[in-house]
């Protein structure tokens, strides 16, 4: 199946926090269930820059091919034999990118004042959600790679949080109607990409109100952090599982 589009990105910061599964369950809609690693759920923030969005079977509106910063908040879920990520929020530095994400994929994208800049090997990222119908969210970080690249070891926490190839949400919660998708099912969207190239990272999270904006309790422990220099992924058309 050809991808709807191909996304190329760079300077990805991964931050993974442990959370009590019981605290997360109210935020994971039925019939999905919370996936755990060593008894704890995980919530992850990804800060990155999309540098190119190329058309596949979906035409890309003019202007979307320009780069824009993006901030994702996600957790990890199961549905039958499917496992994947469930997005709690996606903040896009492009209003057009947010609109395409909602209409083509049904994902909860919001426009944001998001910016990523570089000075040498140091990356500065900031994002402030633009919203009239819900809480804003602010995230500010400075980070730089600090080690040799590698891939996630199978069975590790890195692999649990990072090596994911699908996202899931109930069709009734789609951010916009999806053609050919059954409202009674679960939407499964798949991506195609090589394994992430990961590096240790020195990072300072200056501001993070993502948990408060999502109605989640603040984590009791600090995050596990990783950096990736970049990625290219094909985004396939969403499907429905009954």
Task: Describe this structure as you would to a colleague.
This protein has about 240 residues and is mainly β. The protein contains 4 helices and 13 strands. Strands 1, 2, 3, 4, 5, 6, 7, 8, 9, 10, 11, 12 and 13 form a 13-stranded mixed β-sheet that branches. The mean pLDDT is about 95.
Strand elements, count: 13
CATH topology, by name, is Acetoacetate decarboxylase-like
**Residue windows where pLDDT falls under 50 for at least 5 positions:** none
Oligomeric state of the chains?
single chain
Overall CATH architecture = Beta Barrel
Features:
242 residues; mainly beta; Acetoacetate decarboxylase-like; 13-stranded mixed β-sheet; 4 helices; 13 strands; globular
List the helices and strands and how they pair.
Layout: E1 5-19, H1 21-24, E2 33-34, E3 41-55, E4 68-79, E5 82-92, H2 95-105, E6 109-119, E7 122-129, E8 138-145, H3 157-162, E9 166-170, E10 186-192, E11 201-208, H4 210-213, E12 224-235, E13 239-241
Parallel strand pairs: 5-6
Antiparallel strand pairs: 1-3, 1-12, 2-4, 3-4, 4-5, 6-7, 7-8, 8-11, 9-10, 10-12, 10-13
Summarize, please.
By secondary structure, the protein is mostly beta strands. 10% of the residues lie in helices and 48% in strands. The chain has a single domain, classed as Beta Barrel (Acetoacetate decarboxylase-like), CATH 2.40.400.10.
